[in-house]
Q: What sequence folds into this?
């Protein structure tokens, strides 16, 4: 199969042609077929093809010449194994369907706290209905959306958008394919003896179901999950940085999700390192415990609870301390070319993770500063930190 990719910003008005084998009934099934659809329908076509056992040979924008090259190829990817699922590739990841000048107006369907008694701060799970858009505002796991809070800034200008990592899978929490969810912490800091509340995070944490919100995007291709069902996935998250990981883990281990995705029945290993200040601040804990119970061979979960646990030096336990404790094993995972590492959350964790990986690599006679760029180039090292 050859996949021709479009430019990073895929325009929703473009038509895409998919060349598919073993799809359809009777004679059709034996022949190669070309199906041309608008971008908004491409993803659902891919899912239908996968469901019916079709094999995609080429995807391209505009007309596709199946004998030679796709009509508008920008770049071709290496051919996957024949068993590779017809899952989302970078070519079909939706980007910028809605822009700040013309945002989608979504409706809040739910807003609840993710914290338990004794937690620090405020972290909420907020969902929006996306139905009715043309094109439909759809997305894949690992992307972000923009929120434009109501009101004006200090200069009387409308607020600018803030990006949030999406915490739901492409199917949404209710699996109905038209919602998106976010995991938002209310930003609060002290300035001149006064507590300042973040504009957008406060707007979101306070919002009521039924309210209408300006949404842009989706954006981002850095944190996409590989379509390989046998991949190994190491996730390093601090606080709300768990958002994309929550989406990956649902896609991998939630029973409803698995039933929705016959082309993605995760069989690899997933290892989540989660950093939180207190036990009461752990996010999505019940779901994670369920995945541990249901998929003990596939899911591993390591916590660093900074204000309740101590590291070996007597300081706060951070995820880099957990990485160091497990360095040898993490490294043996990374040596497997099927392993991807995802890091999301506080930018401050990056130097600590690098330090831990440097020590682990050195123990194997390797140099982490040389290895990391190679992993990045192979699209196996994914970082999104703020
Ligand atoms: P938080 O609850 O304040 O912190 C999470 C944990 O990280 C706490 O245990 C904290 O420990 C620990 N921590 C603090 N400094 C650290 C360091 N240098 N290295 C490792 N761990 C450290 O987290 P949050 O408020 O949810 O913040 C998450 C951050 O992620 C925000 O900055 C947010 O903007 C960002 N974020 C980024 C993305 C993205 O890039 N896509 C998505 C979501 C969130 P102590 O507080 O006890 O020291």
A:
């Amino acid at each position: 199969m050859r996949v021709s990719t479009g430019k990073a910003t895929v325009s929703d008005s473009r038509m895409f042609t998919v060349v598919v084998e073993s799809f359809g009934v009777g004679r059709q099934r034996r022949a190669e077929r070309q199906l041309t659809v608008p971008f908004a329908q491409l993803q659902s076509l891919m899912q239908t093809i996968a469901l019916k056992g079709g094999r995609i040979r080429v995807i391209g924008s505009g007309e596709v010449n199946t004998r030679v090259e796709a009509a508008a190829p920008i770049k071709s990817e290496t051919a996957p194994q024949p068993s590779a699922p017809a899952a989302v590739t970078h070519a079909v990841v939706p980007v910028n369907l809605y822009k700040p000048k013309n945002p989608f107006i979504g409706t809040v369907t739910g807003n609840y706290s993710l914290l338990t008694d004794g937690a620090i701060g405020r972290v909420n799970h907020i969902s929006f209905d996306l139905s009715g858009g043309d094109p439909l505002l759809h997305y894949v796991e690992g992307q972000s959306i923009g929120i434009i809070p109501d009101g004006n800034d200090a200069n009387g200008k409308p607020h600018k958008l803030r990006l949030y990592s999406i915490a739901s899978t492409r199917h949404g929490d209710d699996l109905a394919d038209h919602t998106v969810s976010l995991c938002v912490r209310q930003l609060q800091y002290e300035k001149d003896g006064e507590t300042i509340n973040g504009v957008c995070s406060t707007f979101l944490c306070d919002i009521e179901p039924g309210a209408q919100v300006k949404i842009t995007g989706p954006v981002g291709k850095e944190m996409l999950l590989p379509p390989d069902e046998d991949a190994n996935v190491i996730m390093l998250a601090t606080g709300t940085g768990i958002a994309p990981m929550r989406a990956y883990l649902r896609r991998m281990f939630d029973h409803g999700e698995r039933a929705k995705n016959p082309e993605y029945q995760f069989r690899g290993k997933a290892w989540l390192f989660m950093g939180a200040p207190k036990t009461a601040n752990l996010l999505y804990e019940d779901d994670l415990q369920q995945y541990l119970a249901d998929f003990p061979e596939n899911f591993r979960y390591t916590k660093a609870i900074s204000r309740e646990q101590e590291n070996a030096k007597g300081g706060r336990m951070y995820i880099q301390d957990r990485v160091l404790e497990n360095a040898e094993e993490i490294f043996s995972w990374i040596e497997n070319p099927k392993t991807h590492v995802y890091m999301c959350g506080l930018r401050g964790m990056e130097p600590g993770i690098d330090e831990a990986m440097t020590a682990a690599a050195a123990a194997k006679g390797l140099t982490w500063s040389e290895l990391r760029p190679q992993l990045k180039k192979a699209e196996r090292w994914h970082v999104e930190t703020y």
